[in-house]
Amino acid sequence: MAASFKQTAALSTPRVGRKQTPDAAYWNNFEFPVTVKEYGAVSCVDFSPVEPYSFAVTASDRVQIYNSRTNKVEKVLTRFKEAARSGRFRSDGELLVAGGDEGLVRVFHLDTKTSLRTFTGHTRSVHAACFSSDKVHVLSASDDKTTRLWDLATGEAVQTLTGHQDYVRSLAVCKSSADMWITGGYDHTVRMWDSRTQESAMTVDHEHPVEAVLMFPHGNMFLSAGGNCVKVWDALGGGRLLATCTNHHKTVTSLAFNSTCSRLLSASLDRHVKVYDVGTYQCVASLTYPSPILSFGVSPSEDVMAVGCADGMLSIQRRKQEESSTKQALRQRKRRGATSRRFYGRGGDYRPVVADYSVTHKQKEQLKKFDKHLKTFSSTKALDEALKPCYPAEVTVGVIQELIRRGSIKEALAGRDDKGLELLLTFLCRWTCEEKYCRVLLDVTTLVVDMYAAVVGQSGKVDRLLQKLLRSVQRETSHQEQLLNTLGSLETLLATAQGTNTS
Amino acid sequence: MFQHVQEKNMAAACDEEMAIVQKAGANLVSERPVFSPDSRYVLCCCGFVVKVFSMSSGECVRELTGHKDFITGVKINPHNQFQAFTSSLDKTVKVWDYPDGKLLKTFSVGYPVHALYLLKEEEDAGYAVIRGKDGVFNLVKFSWTNRKGHTIKVETKEVLRRVSRHEKHLAFGPEGSFIASVTRNKLTVLFTKSGKMKEFERPKNEFQCVTCHPTDACIATGMQDGKIFLWRGLFQKKEVVRTIYHWHTLPVGDLTFSPEGTYFLSVGQECVLVLWQYNTEKKDFLPRMGSPLCYISSSPDGSLLAVSQVENVVQIVTRSNKVVQVFQGLTRVHIPQLIRSTNPIPTGLQMDPRSHTLVLNGRPGHLQWYNLHTDRHLYNLDIVWQNFVSSRRPWEAPEVIYTEIERTAFDQKGDWLATLERRADGMMAEEIKLKLWSFNKEKQSFELNTTVDCPHQGKVNALVFQPHSGADLPPTAVSAGDDGKFKTWTLIDDTDIYRENVCWTCDSVGTYRDLAAKDATFSEDGSLLAVAFGQSLTIWDPYTLDLKTTFCHTFCAEKDSIRQARFGLGSSCHYLITTTSSNLSVWNILSCSLLWTVSCECAVLVADPLSEYMAVFSSTSDLTVFKPSSPEPVYAHNKVVQSSVVAAIFFPKQDQQAEEQTDEAPWQKRSELYFMTYDQDLLTLQKDAPQQTRKDLTEMEVLESHLPPTPFSMYLSQVRPGRQEKDSPALVQHGTPGSVAIQQMLQTPAHVLPPVSTLCQSFLQMLLVSKSSAERQDDEDMESESDEEEKNDQSETSDSEMEEDEHATTVKQSTSQSEKDILSHDQTSNQSDSGKIHLKETEDLSSVKSSDLSWMKGIF
């Protein structure tokens, strides 16, 4: 073979808008969501840190524990007289703490569903509560502008911390130190607290009411969300602002890390969950949901994502199961049979020594079917193959372009029967007015219409398709006309503005 | 590097003696290539010379120079395999000893010879196609019986009148029993014994080529409609049997039978080599050869085929369809759409700043890199990445229009290459792509970085990179097109968290009065951008795209728009030179005024990058070299070539530091002016006619001596280095094999041996040799060792003497090396074992070492 056949390239068009990143592919690789209607707005979703990673959903006056495998409710905690808030697991997954509008902080034992402790002291509703990282203390933040540290064993308040000027709505603990936590309040500040002092150790100004805070496990950096921005703060550097992400256009309501803390996820009332790279704080992926999001959670295995919405919808998504390589190997073995494998694979582990003359087997290049037809110059067959719906449009347009280059587009289009013509017209109807293909396809459409003018009226289906084609072209022309009109009036305005400026 | 004078181009009268010479890139495929009888060489006609290519290395090892006009054919003497006959339009036939490149005899025929045929049966006679006085081509026989001397005037005897001048249009039957000749629609067969003639006509078809079976009375003809006819039964009185073989859709290019006659091969414009079995319908193909094929010839033993391609390539193909060797000249553009246009090389001549090689259009959709100094084709870069589809039959519309590269540009350092490809057939939408390639230092080739689809609507007239004077700015390129826009493209950072990447993007777009932008150029330091719009030349600031000033050719006719614009270089960098179809004007940028203008029809304007000289070729091929500062020409040469000049370049000389020859014109001191004619001859100007400064013959002989003469020596040359390496460590391990004492020492069990400290002295003394006897003894030792070695290693005894000698020396070398190793090894072991070493012993050791070195000197 003198030279190998060069495969037909798909028509490449510059991608407008966001590029497809590996992260976007990863975070969009979920199965179709299971949607559950909750009793009210879902204010908190928290995954258990231990397997089987069941998750607690706080909505209305109850906290429900879902099984992440079956998506069914396992347990319901209904001790609340008013709305429950912030149902969160302890790091061993055995206890759960929840605040509530009644001002109480309750600790539940999950296996028995019994209420172990009820901490009283807050005068207004408690919107955030969680366990400290030493497992024996509970933290709560309340609308009465205070944060309290409770002792689990005695049920007494150890500390009552004041400093915030407004509601304290968010709370996060440092995993590496039991004495450190941060709170975010509606007074636009995020405060870092140390249990060894009464005063707040550090205060930073977020410039918006803070809806959520989050701390890196190493405790060196923390994040705050409020308004439409997420801010990254350097705790070691004395509360220096490191980065600001303003990818949302409505209030950011919730923050979370993925399992390795290499990605940050934020949810917002603008119905999006955005994924950021924690090195650069660039948005690398975006997920869209049907209604404003109040809370969300990602399972530690990153297999399940639960998103709670303001309209009480809970959407549970499971990652698509990839077929593991072992399974594939098993299936292959089944197909071939163990004996043939032994037969064909014999000597497979032989390593050639220096004196051996090794004969290399040249892998034959795999060509697509339409390329095979192009190789044998059968243009009609190549076009028929490329028009099949299994190929994306850019591949089909690439083949059409190649046929134009060869000067054989007319032969490929001519002499089609009803079925072939239908296939062609369906494709043209769909894509002729698409901006990236219209340069190529308009010429082809003109050719087809010229060629098959004689057969109009012979087949109902073809006529209908031609009508459809006409309509779509008309729609596009009127659209273009409108655009030109707009452009013209804009230009007039701009010219006038320039004229007045200079004068 | 070969050079020859094209006398017909010398006509012009000029003030200095300057000759037009073709320095590189001659046509290899004007005639059929010929194998030497042992298939070691291939002979190709190449302009005024015959090039002898070596099969094993692919190098041109000999050039047969001496003809004064184009060579029309080369043939091996069937009675002496070291002689070759060449025919030429200079009315001579010459006999050469081609392995040595010596001219033996010259036969003066008296007429231009267009084709040459030699028969095995006639020892001192040949056939030639000559152009008679009446302008008709005739086949004549000339014989040189019993003539002595170097130059012989031979008599010609007419054999057949009115033949075609092409070699492939005439063939001789087995043992010269008949002559088959084709002219347009007619096949004429002349039976040499009886003198009878048979004629066959195909009124609706044209004969393209003819060949005869080596043993049977059978003629094969290739037709214009792609059919191949086999004509058999020529000697029978009955109707001649005609068999049709039809695969080709386009005219058959060439036909040849295998030496045994069991199959025949045909080539054509389909780029496919077709092998047909004689007497059966079976055929085999070698597809996608790359470009249309024009000639095929088979080696005398039938194992190899030489296929000539119109793009100036000869490929050697084995019977198993494997390409084993490629002889490539300057690739010629052959696609019809470019041949028909006024400029077959739309990219012009460019220089790759990195490798200092010439870059221009080559294969369809490729750029070629050509080294002018060594006259070698380096490589092709596939820009378009499309399959080459052969043209359609003439009556089939539409014709295939190929995507062709129209503009290329290199940035200053050669890191970036911009190419612009375009396909416009006038019926479908245009396809235009701007591609930017980055140079990959690891792979040493260009890699595609960015593709811009449809950068301009319509033709793009200019593509240039902005020269940067060391500033740390991103590279910038400018393209200008017929759509009235010029766009600047800049490199931007496209790095994200996944990969590091840079890509090109359109930075800004400029227009001027909706006129088509015809040319764009940067000043030497890149601080000004000049874009030609119609009659106006606009000067822009490339960074802010502010219009600085405008020069207008108001004195020109209405439709006379600017074709080219160039900034002066060096000391005349403040001048701007513009050409229109009738004027050449120079503007001063400092005073914004017209400096001078002359009336001349300019086709090509080039500037020397190393000096301030510029050259302009008019559309009637008149060359003028000038300085922008004055309208006085530095050099003028009228009518450099018959055809038009389509591109030119000042190419920097290879050795800039070398002594500047005083007899050279000042404008030629630093660069040579190369130009490409419409016929794709790459020519240059040189001071007076060169005295056949041939390539260094010694260099060529060295080259040939490096070639492996036999398969066995080739095997040896591969095997030898490997074995040396393997043997020497083994010797180090086992000690000196010849020494009895050491063998004893090694065989005795370690526990009965005396302490090492006592052994050491005796061991060293054993090694010590008195200086007088050292050389002799050692040599003997070595000799015996090497003999042993040879017996062990080498079972083949059929080696040639020379190689045996060589082998022996290498073995000696390795043993001596090993002995030295032992010494040093023992020395260290002594130190470690006994803990101390006597001063005397060290002295002894040093003497051993010195003696050791001395006998080593003796060996070498």
Describe the structure.
The complex is a heterodimer of chains A (503) and B (860). By secondary structure, chain A is of the alpha+beta class. In chain A, 26% of the residues lie in helices and 32% in strands. Chain A is built from ten helices and 28 strands. In chain A, the strands form seven sheets. In chain A, strands 1-28-27-26 form a four-stranded antiparallel beta sheet, with no helix packed on it. Chain A has a four-stranded antiparallel beta sheet with strand order 2-3-4-5, with no helix packed on it. In chain A, helix 4 (369-375) runs antiparallel to helix 5 (379-386), helix 5 packs antiparallel against helix 6 and helix 8 runs parallel beside helix 10 (460-502). The relative contact order of chain A is 0.09. By secondary structure, chain B is of the alpha+beta class. Helices cover 16% and strands 39% of the residues of chain B. Chain B has eight helices and 57 strands. Chain B has a five-stranded mixed beta sheet with strand order 6-7-8-9-13, with no helix packed on it. Chain B has a four-stranded antiparallel beta sheet with strand order 1-57-56-55, with no helix packed on it. Chain B has a four-stranded antiparallel beta sheet with strand order 2-3-4-5. In chain B, strand 51 (602-607) and strand 52 (614-618) form a beta hairpin. Chains A and B meet through helix 6 and helix 9 of A and loops of B.
Distinctive features:
heterodimer; A: 503 residues; alpha+beta; 4-stranded antiparallel β-sheet; 28 strands; 26% helix; B: 860 residues; 5-stranded mixed β-sheet; 57 strands; globular
What is the multimeric organization of the chains shown?
heterodimer
Biggest interface between protein chains, with counts per chain? A-B, 29 and 31 residues
Give the overall form of chain A: extended
- Counting helices, strands and paired strands, the structural category of chain B is alpha+beta
- Hey, roughly how much beta strand do the residues of chain A contain? 25-35%
Mean pLDDT of chain A: 88
Report the sheet with the most strands of chain A, covering strand number, pairing sense and barrel closure.
4 strands, antiparallel
Strand order, main sheet of chain B: write it out: 6-7-8-9-13
Number of contiguous helices of chain A = 10
- Supply Rg of chain A: 32 Å
Q: Which structural class is indicated by helix and strand composition of chain A?
A: alpha+beta
Total count of strands of chain A:
28
Distance between the termini of chain B: 38 Å
Low-pLDDT residue spans of chain A: none
| Spatial order of strands in the largest sheet of chain A | 1-28-27-26
Approximate helicity band of chain A: 25-40%
Q: What is the overall silhouette of chain B?
A: globular
pLDDT averaged residue by residue of chain B: 80
